[in-house]
């Protein structure tokens, strides 16, 4: 089953962008996954190809219209399509590695990239959109967020990473941030590679890496450490 991504956007020229390079690009060229960028304006009905209007109740900015977006979504994801419908939005549920793995194991995704002040709420409810956020900050549109999401998903698809084991110890895979890495030269600006890493004792190396991961996580993401603690009855 090939992972199929359809992105609904006002700027289809932003795709594949970085997804056309490196691991994702090679996988795209090899047919391991597919990407289709759909121009939302193609579903507008007036000669100006208008897709937005002023917000009901007043206020600044413009809002993407429900009727136009509904046509675009129904075209990209007809009944029985089976792919989740995502809306990249700063008010969405934070994207995490668990959700990324779920998406990678599925048939693909239909991703709506928001613009302006947002999307008509009726469209979100009627088309069952899952709002997804990549962080507590605001972008000019959902396209960069969609690129981030797809990059995270595509690298987990079968055959994309040359060494599948390389992803098992990465940050968030085991609830911790990743341990520090080192490589040659042995001595860099009077700083040597930690001796344990050149000892050849794989059990001790694994234990050292786990301890460093715990320390880094406790320092930078104590919330992750708290999730690992068993709840007191």
UniProtKB/TrEMBL annotation:
Tell me the protein's name: tRNA (guanine-N(1)-)-methyltransferase
The family database entries (PANTHER family) matched by this protein are listed as: TRNA (GUANINE-N(1)-)-METHYLTRANSFERASE
Give the first-level EC class, as a single word: transferase
Say where the protein is mainly found: cytoplasm
Q: Which GO terms describe its molecular function?
A: tRNA (guanine(37)-N1)-methyltransferase activity
Q: Which Gene3D superfamilies match?
A: 3.40.1280.10, tRNA(m1g37)methyltransferase, domain 2
Lineage of origin: Bacteria, Pseudomonadati, Pseudomonadota, Alphaproteobacteria, Hyphomicrobiales
Presence of keyword tRNA processing: yes
List where in the cell it is found: Cytoplasm
Assembly behavior: Homodimer.
Residues binding S-adenosyl-L-methionine, per UniProt: 114, 134-139
- Protein function: Specifically methylates guanosine-37 in various tRNAs.
EC id: 2.1.1.228
Q: Name one GO cellular component term.
A: cytosol
Q: Name a biological process GO annotation.
A: tRNA N1-guanine methylation
What keywords does the record list, in alphabetical order?
Answer: Cytoplasm, Methyltransferase, S-adenosyl-L-methionine, Transferase, tRNA processing
InterPro entries in the record, alphabetically? Alpha/beta_knot_MTases, tRNA_m1G_MeTrfase_C_sf, tRNA_m1G_MeTrfase_TrmD, tRNA_m1G_MTases_N, tRNA_MeTrfase_TRMD/TRM10
């Amino acid at each position: 089953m090939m992972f199929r991504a359809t992105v609904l956007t006002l700027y289809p020229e932003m795709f594949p962008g970085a997804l056309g390079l490196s691991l994702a690009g090679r996988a795209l060229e090899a047919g391991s996954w597919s990407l289709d960028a759909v121009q939302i304006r193609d579903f507008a009905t007036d000669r100006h190809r208008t897709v937005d209007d002023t917000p009901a109740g007043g206020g600044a900015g413009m809002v993407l219209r429900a009727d136009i977006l509904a046509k675009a979504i129904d075209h990209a994801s007809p009944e029985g399509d089976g792919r989740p419908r995502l809306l990249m939005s700063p008010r969405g549920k934070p994207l995490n590695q668990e959700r990324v793995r779920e998406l990678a194991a599925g048939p693909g995704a239909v991703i709506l990239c928001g613009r302006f002040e947002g999307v008509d709420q009726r469209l979100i409810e009627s088309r069952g959109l899952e709002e997804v956020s990549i962080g507590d900050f605001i972008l000019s549109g959902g396209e960069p967020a969609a690129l981030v999401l797809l990059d995270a998903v595509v690298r987990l698809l079968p055959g994309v990473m040359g060494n599948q084991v390389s992803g098992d110890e990465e940050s968030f895979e085991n609830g911790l941030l990743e341990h520090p890495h080192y490589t040659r030269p042995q001595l860099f600006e009077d700083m040597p590679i930690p001796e344990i890493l050149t000892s050849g004792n794989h059990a001790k190396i694994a234990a050292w890496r786990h301890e460093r991961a715990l320390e880094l996580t406790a320092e930078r993401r104590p919330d992750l450490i708290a999730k690992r603690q068993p709840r007191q009855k």
